[in-house]
Amino acid sequence: MRETVEALVRLESPSDDKAAVDRCAAELTRRLGALGAEVTRVPQSTCGDHVRAEWRPSGLQTGGTPILLLGHFDTVWPVGTLERMPIHEREGRLFGPGIFDMKAGIAASMLAMRALIEFRKLTPHVVMLWTTDEEIGSGTSRALIEETAHAAAAVLVLEPSLPRGAAKTSRKGVGEFTVTVHGVAAHAGLDPGKGASATHELARQVLALETLQDPGRGITINVGVISGGSRSNVIADRATAQIDVRIQTMEDAGRIESAIRSLRPTRPSIRLDISGGIGRPPLERSAVVVRLYEEARRVAAAFGRELGEGAAGGGSDGNFTGALGVPTLDGLGPEGDGAHAIHEHVLLDDLSWRGAFLAGLIESLAGSSTSAVQR
């Protein structure tokens, strides 16, 4: 497993470098094929090719209800990062760009299938879907993810685990909005009354947005980027704000999106344009999610481990599958720390256990005909 992890990390795969991502896709395709999977590369023109692998039980040619293992192999790190962040081991940790988020999770799933096939002599019906644009919004992969998940009994997401290796039973939904204010330009000294400042109006709108926050309900709104105006002596005729929205429930998603789209200018000579929306729905801790977690917890206990659970403020592709009502358990990748940070690493002691745990969970779900996670 360590060899697989290091091989994938060496193939740097930033989301915006198709050639680099496709080199990683080629290696994934080769390794998955060697494990006996039927592998398909899903070609893309604007990002790297997605990789789909499927194992079918003997005699099963079509149909059946597979277990879906889901994740991505694009990273936030540009090609060349390995020169300043080389793969290395220190104090029981394996460091490298993209290792925690989330190439070690992919390697763990491959080890799980190898264990089942070679040692259990079992080939469960499993589909793996590894995508290439999760870090930039899943624009080309969302439809493929949802189509694949619709046919699945359960979805196991190999994103990084929470501290102490806990699974993620809920994730916030994510929205991105842009508010553009159109004002009226004028000379700030000679004709200020003839103007209508877009920047002043934007400031008032930012204050209005702040009133929509409710951290106790998991609703946060961050105006992260503001631009506008041309010179200090010109009343600005245009200003924009880019806004990040996080919510925990679909109910709040609809309410907050409606409130943002209902913003109105405070002066008749000013116009607002509002674009964007809730692009990634929340993964809610529903009854089917809890049942899937409890099954995973039981399997972990058989290995002498306590599998905790928790929530995450960021979204993943598991948000899409959970919103479909498909039982989804996230954060099943190896324990570590430093996603998107220079100290990104995984714990070496967790790697082999994580593969064995995943194999046990897949075997349990396949053997019980997924009765523990019926929708």
| Total number of distinct structural domains | 2
Which of globular, elongated, flat, extended, rod-shaped describes the shape? elongated
Rg, alpha carbons: 23 Å
The percentage of residues in β strands lies in 15-25%
Uncertain parts: none
Helix content: 25-40%
In CATH, the architecture of the largest domain is 3-Layer(aba) Sandwich
Distinct helical segment count: 9
- In N-to-C order, the SSE pattern is HHEEEEEHEHEEEEHEEEHEHEHEEEH
Main beta sheet strand tally, sense and closure: 6 strands, mixed
Could you say which structural class the secondary elements and strand pairing correspond to? Answer: alpha+beta
CATH domain topology of the largest domain: Aminopeptidase
- CATH homology superfamily name of the largest domain: Zn peptidases
Strand order of the largest sheet: 1-2-6-3-7-16
What is the CATH class name of the largest domain?
Alpha Beta
Number of DSSP E strands = 18
The end-to-end distance, rounded to whole angstroms, is: 33 Å
Mean pLDDT: 95
Please give a handful of descriptors for the protein shown.
375 residues, alpha+beta, Aminopeptidase, Alpha-Beta Plaits, 2 domains, six-stranded mixed beta sheet, four-stranded antiparallel beta sheet, 18 strands, 33% helix, 25% strand, elongated
Written overview of the protein:
By secondary structure, the chain is an alpha+beta fold. The protein folds into two domains: 2-171 and 283-373, Aminopeptidase (3-Layer(aba) Sandwich); 173-280, Alpha-Beta Plaits (2-Layer Sandwich), CATH 3.30.70. 33% of the residues lie in helices and 25% in strands. It is built from nine helices and 18 strands. The protein has helices spanning 2-10, 18-34, 99-118, 142-150, 198-210, 250-261, 287-302, 318-323, 348-367; strands at residues 38-42, 50-55, 67-72, 88-90, 93-95, 126-131, 154-157, 167-171, 173-182, 186-187, 220-228, 234-235, 238-247, 271-280, 309-312, 328-329, 336-337, 345-347. The strands form five sheets. It has a six-stranded mixed β-sheet, with helices on both faces. A four-stranded antiparallel β-sheet has the order 4-5-18-17.
